[in-house]
């Protein structure tokens, strides 16, 4: 009953706009398939797009201080990293990653950093591409120095500067579908935080299968603090060294030569 009430609340504006009296009537219209655009509107209305820059700082600190330095060693030959922010909402997570690399230019000089942000909602992806945020949004998670350095005030709001926007590309994508392509090879890091919480067991298993297939042999998956692969999939296991990170299930560690071959 509680869940139905929440759904009705989330869809109330759409029901009024479309002149639909009840949730049951909406379901009937969707099942009949006479209004394809309505399905996407329902998805948009039900999504929880809560996000902000450097959300839950600890994961970003772990990436900056330990994970990325390790990856510079195993990717030193190719000097290329591929990162996927899955369920990126309005883009703050992807831009946070871009800022993290841009703020350490000496370490990443000469590297190719490919950051892909994706979300099932076309509306939020379009917002992410614009890089425009309200005063409230741009202040959440950013210090004054970062805000001034990476954003410029416009009539439309605070916009990420071009030097930041050009380092991230966004696309509409459903986590249950085959993963996006990073250009070549697979992703070294996939962030999929607080995206799978509302999926049932079957859909969650399929999502984990998709995420596992997106990872390089020694790639890492980061989930939200309340999420885990344990009991959900046999394709991924907890990383032995880093809490909250997961990797493909393998019997033996990936030899350095295989890492280079997979990501060269």
From TrEMBL:
The keyword Isomerase does not apply. This is Protein-glutamate O-methyltransferase CheR. It comes from the Bacteria. GO terms for biological process: methylation. InterPro entries: Bact_Chemotaxis_MeTrfase, CheR_C, CheR_MeTrfase, SAM-dependent_MTases_sf. Gene3D superfamilies: Vaccinia Virus protein VP39. It comes from Sphingomonas rhizophila. Residues 1-251 form the CheR-type methyltransferase domain. Transmembrane segments: none annotated. Keywords: Methyltransferase, Transferase. PROSITE patterns: CHER (PS50123). One of its GO terms (molecular function) is S-adenosylmethionine-dependent methyltransferase activity.
């Amino acid at each position: 009953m509680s869940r139905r009430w929440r759904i009705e609340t989330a869809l109330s504006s759409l029901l009024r706009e479309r002149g639909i009296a009840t949730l049951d009537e909406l379901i009937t219209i969707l099942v009949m398939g006479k209004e394809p655009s309505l399905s996407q509107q329902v998805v948009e209305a039900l999504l929880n797009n809560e996000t902000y820059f450097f959300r839950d700082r600890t994961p970003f600190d772990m990436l900056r201080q330990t994970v990325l330095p390790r990856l510079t060693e195993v990717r030193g030959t190719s000097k290329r990293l591929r990162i996927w922010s899955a369920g990126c909402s309005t883009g703050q997570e992807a831009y946070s990653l871009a800022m993290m690399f841009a703020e350490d230019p000496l370490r990443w000089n000469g590297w190719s950093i490919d950051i892909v942000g994706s979300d099932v909602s076309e509306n939020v992806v379009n917002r992410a591409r614009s890089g425009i945020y309200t005063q409230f949004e741009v202040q959440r998670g950013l210090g004054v120095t970062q805000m001034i350095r990476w954003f410029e005030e416009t009539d439309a709001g605070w916009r990420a500067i071009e030097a930041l926007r050009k380092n991230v590309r966004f696309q509409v994508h459903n986590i249950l579908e085959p993963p996006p392509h990073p250009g070549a090879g697979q992703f070294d890091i996939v962030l999929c935080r607080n995206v799978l919480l509302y999926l049932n067991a079957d859909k969650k298993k399929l999502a984990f299968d998709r995420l596992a297939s997106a990872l390089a042999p020694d790639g890492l998956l980061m989930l939200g603090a309340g999420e885990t692969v344990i009991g959900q999939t046999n394709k991924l296991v907890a990383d032995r060294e880093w809490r909250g990170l997961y990797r493909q299930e393998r019997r033996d560690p990936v030899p350095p030569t295989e890492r280079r071959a997979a990501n060269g």
